[in-house]
């Protein structure tokens, strides 16, 4: 794998000449339970952990993750239409990266900010290095698409070029265009009498050069390619699975739009706008109005990237860059072949079972029999663990809400919503509960990036149904995933809780790998009650959390104090071991603490999906640390934290990654998992990561990754295949146990 640009391999510790000797520092916060450190650690360290060279760049390591995703599109073991899907995923990811990360960095440059990151880069340096990396990834992606396209042609799935079509096919497409496309088009003139038109984000556009037959003067016009809202990017031609891109159909039938004119040339371009238009919510009288205003501003936000088709006239390229206020050298990307490959999602859904992964059908959780009241089951079990998408979201989490909505003994439901389906069963259940006279309170995060419009709509729908909707605490995003159900049991009111690592979203629950805990533990339930009181009031005073640790007040302290405890216990008796599973490791203080743990001899296993600032395997600094990234069929999304704790092991699940924003600017939760049968399940997940020889990548000190390969005799299965098999086996074993006759 190519290494992240700008990162140089780290030399052995013997070659290190630290500027200053740093001291290993220990957080003052004390953990609850377990042995406590007797005294602070004050040993001299040969490494100055304030030096930028020990930290990788957030943006570049995220781009490195996309190289790993793109590898799935090049891997011959991946079915063909899944390879096409991964090309679309990378294309979509790079669009979002440009909108969010490059957009944000350009705002910093525009504001004159020169503050260096932890890894020592200025905003301008990051933009330049990221653009270089993106161009490299785009080149590899184009080659991957060429190969996959050729292989698909051999299977009868063809993306045709309009020029090579037979006359009868061209006639068919022209008729289709006239009936279904032409009425949607709005050509716009570009001349001194007409200001340069507004170009919408991520839209495909034709730049048409034309003239009157008897004139030498050229005119310009822009035509938007109307992809979306029922208009596909790829138009079927003939009876088989042959398709022509919509823009090619338009480019070859421009005479309808410009009758009597001579078409001199037609070129294609696409723009990406900045997605960062956040305002100060403390100054807003109405948060919803402010978010709606932000969405309008985002539509008109400054453009940060211009993509053009290969061979565009230099004068047109320059004019577009000037009109869009872009740096022609750095912000204009010339793309050979098709633009907007994210639209390949359309093609990847074609119904060819042998060209897809084998069908995956989540199993019902063996501990939740359908014929029994779910609350009676939870009351008897105490707690149970949900592993999605291996266990059905519909028959667990959605059922939990559905039964709560209709159970006459349920008095109240409280829930957080970050992202959810606009037509999902979650909202239906909440509305049903309100209609059934239950108290329903929902904390909606309006500022969930790219889901703001959806969440505004859902908030309005719920308020109309009589649901009490609030928007969390001013200045903090509500990112925790929590449901609280209050039910009248035979002993009085009893509380039932779901805490998850993933969103309450029906679609993503099928493709994201997440963990959920359903419990009636009284201590957890009391903590969650306090959490909701905080979310609906913003008042923090004297909230005594005994088990669940929320951010921003407690979660980071809990992690740091437990890392400190692991160091001290290891010094006393050895065997120190930390295992963290997360999507991103970006927070500088957490990284420093993990370096200190490694220097003390603690074994540290980090399973980090994408961004990772830490350099593993640096002699003397991080030689006890491994960083592994799992990239496969499902998107790794769970957060699990494990501390060996001198043998008194602790397991936690969380909504939070080890990122500064999550730990300090969001409401997150860290929740303990204590039941032995549940910690066995979490241990099995870690074991799968270690056994993986298909989708596991080991990180090297320079920030590059090496994919594991099976050797003779080893299984070539990836983590996701192993976890599918485990879930099926658990269900099978439970059914066998149920059928066993009672022993006499």
UniProtKB/TrEMBL annotation:
Record: residues binding Mg(2+): 419, 449
Enzyme class: transferase
Basic residues bias (residue ranges): 20-35
Enzyme Commission number(s) of this protein: 2.7.4.1
Basic and acidic residues bias: start-end ranges: 1-10
Maturation and modification: An intermediate of this reaction is the autophosphorylated ppk in which a phosphate is covalently linked to a histidine residue through a N-P bond.
A GO molecular-function annotation: ATP binding
Pfam families (alphabetical): PP_kinase, PP_kinase_C, PP_kinase_C_1, PP_kinase_N
Family: Belongs to the polyphosphate kinase 1 (PPK1) family.
Active site: 479
Domain Polyphosphate kinase middle: 169-346
Ranges for region Disordered: 1-45
Domain Polyphosphate kinase N-terminal span(s) in chain numbering: 55-159
Reactions accelerated catalytically: [phosphate](n) + ATP = [phosphate](n+1) + ADP
InterPro entries attached to this UniProt entry: PP_kinase, PP_kinase_C_1, PP_kinase_middle, PP_kinase_middle_dom_sf, PPK_C_dom2, PPK_N_dom, PPK_N_dom_sf
GO cellular component, one term: polyphosphate kinase complex
The organism's taxonomic lineage, starting at the top: Bacteria, Pseudomonadati, Thermodesulfobacteriota, Desulfuromonadia, Geobacterales
Record bears the keyword Phosphoprotein: yes
PANTHER family linked to this entry: POLYPHOSPHATE KINASE (PTHR30218:SF0)
Record's keyword terms, sorted: ATP-binding, Kinase, Magnesium, Metal-binding, Nucleotide-binding, Phosphoprotein, Transferase
Protein name: Polyphosphate kinase
Cofactor: Mg(2+)
Domain Polyphosphate kinase C-terminal stretches: 373-537, 551-710
Binding annotation for ATP: 93, 512, 609, 637
A biological-process GO annotation: polyphosphate biosynthetic process
Gene symbol of the encoding locus: ppk1
Record function comment: Catalyzes the reversible transfer of the terminal phosphate of ATP to form a long-chain polyphosphate (polyP).
């Amino acid at each position: 794998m190519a290494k992240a640009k700008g990162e140089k391999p780290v030399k052995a510790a013997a070659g290190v000449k630290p500027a200053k000797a740093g001291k290993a520092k220990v957080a003052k916060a004390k953990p609850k339970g377990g042995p406590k450190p007797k005294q602070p650690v004050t040993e001299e360290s040969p490494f100055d952990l304030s030096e930028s060279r020990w930290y990788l760049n957030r943006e570049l390591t995220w781009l490195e993750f996309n190289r790993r995703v793109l590898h799935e599109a090049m891997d011959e073991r991946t079915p063909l239409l899944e390879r096409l899907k991964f090309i679309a995923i990378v294309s979509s990811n790079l669009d979002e990266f440009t909108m969010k990360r490059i957009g944000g960095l350009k705002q910093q440059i525009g504001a004159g900010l020169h503050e260096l990151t932890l890894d020592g880069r200025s905003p301008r340096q990051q933009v330049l290095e990221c653009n270089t990396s993106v161009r490299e990834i785009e080149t590899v992606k184009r080659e991957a698409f060429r190969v996959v396209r050729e292989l698909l042609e051999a299977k009868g799935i063809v993306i045709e070029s309009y020029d090579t079509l037979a006359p009868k096919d061209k006639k068919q497409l022209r008729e289709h265009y006239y009936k279904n496309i032409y009425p949607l088009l709005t050509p716009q003139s570009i001349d001194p009498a007409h200001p340069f038109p507004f170009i919408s984000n991520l839209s495909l556009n034709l730049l048409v050069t034309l003239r009157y037959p008897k004139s030498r003067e050229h005119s310009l016009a822009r035509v938007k390619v109307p992809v979306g809202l029922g208009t596909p990017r790829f138009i079927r031609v003939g009876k088989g699975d042959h398709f022509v891109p919509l823009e090619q159909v338009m480019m070859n039938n421009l005479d309808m739009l410009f009758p009597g004119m001579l078409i001199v040339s037609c070129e294609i371009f696409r723009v990406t706008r900045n997605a960062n238009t956040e305002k100060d919510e403390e100054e807003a009288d109405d948060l919803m109005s402010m978010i709606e205003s932000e969405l309008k501003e985002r539509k008109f936000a400054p453009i940060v990237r211009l993509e053009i088709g290969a061979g565009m006239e230099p004068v047109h390229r320059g004019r577009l860059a000037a009109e869009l206020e872009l740096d022609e050298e750095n912000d204009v990307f010339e793309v050979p072949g098709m633009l907007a490959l994210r639209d390949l999602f359309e093609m990847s859904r074609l119904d060819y079972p042998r060209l897809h992964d084998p069908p995956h059908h989540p199993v019902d959780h063996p501990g939740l029999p359908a014929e029994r009241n779910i609350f009676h089951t939870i009351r008897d079990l105490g707690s149970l663990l949900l592993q999605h998408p291996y266990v059905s979201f519909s028959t667990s989490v959605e059922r939990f809400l559905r039964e709560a909505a209709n159970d006459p003994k349920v008095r109240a439901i409280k829930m957080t919503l970050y992202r959810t389906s606009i037509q999902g069963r979650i909202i239906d259940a909440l509305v049903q509960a309100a209609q059934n006279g239950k108290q329903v309170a929902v904390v909606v995060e309006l500022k969930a990036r790219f889901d703001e419009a959806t969440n505004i709509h859902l908030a309005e729908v719920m308020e109309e149904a009589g649901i009490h909707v609030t928007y969390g605490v001013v200045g903090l995003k509500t990112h925790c995933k929590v449901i609280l159900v209050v039910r009248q049991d035979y002993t009085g009111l009893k509380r039932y809780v779901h805490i998850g690592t993933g969103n309450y979203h029906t679609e993503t629950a099928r493709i994201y790998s997440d963990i959920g805990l359903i419990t009636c533990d009284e201590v957890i339930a009391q903590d969650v009650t306090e959490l909701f009181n905080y979310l609906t009031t913003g008042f923090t005073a004297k909230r005594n959390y005994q088990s669940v640790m929320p951010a921003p007040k407690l979660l980071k302290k809990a992690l740091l104090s437990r890392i400190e405890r692991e160091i001290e216990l290891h010094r006393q008796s050895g065997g120190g071991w930390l295992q963290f599973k997360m999507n991103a490791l970006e927070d500088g203080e957490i990284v420093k603490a993990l370096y200190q743990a490694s220097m003390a001899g603690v074994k540290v296993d980090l399973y980090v999906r994408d961004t990772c600032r830490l350099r593993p395997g640096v002699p003397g600094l991080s030689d006890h640390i491994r960083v592994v990234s799992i990239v496969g069929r499902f998107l790794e999304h769970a957060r699990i934290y494990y501390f060996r704790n001198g043998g008194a092991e602790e397991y936690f699940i969380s909504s939070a990654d080890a990122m500064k924003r999550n730990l300090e600017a969001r409401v997150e939760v860290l929740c303990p998992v204590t039941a032995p049968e549940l910690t066995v399940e979490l241990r099995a997940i870690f074991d799968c990561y270690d056994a993986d020889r298909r989708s596991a990548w080991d990180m090297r000190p320079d920030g590059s990754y090496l994919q594991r390969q099976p050797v003779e005799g080893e299984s070539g299965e990836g983590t996701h295949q192993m976890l599918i098999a485990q879930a099926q086996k658990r269900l099978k074993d439970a059914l066998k146990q149920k059928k066993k006759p009672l022993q006499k």
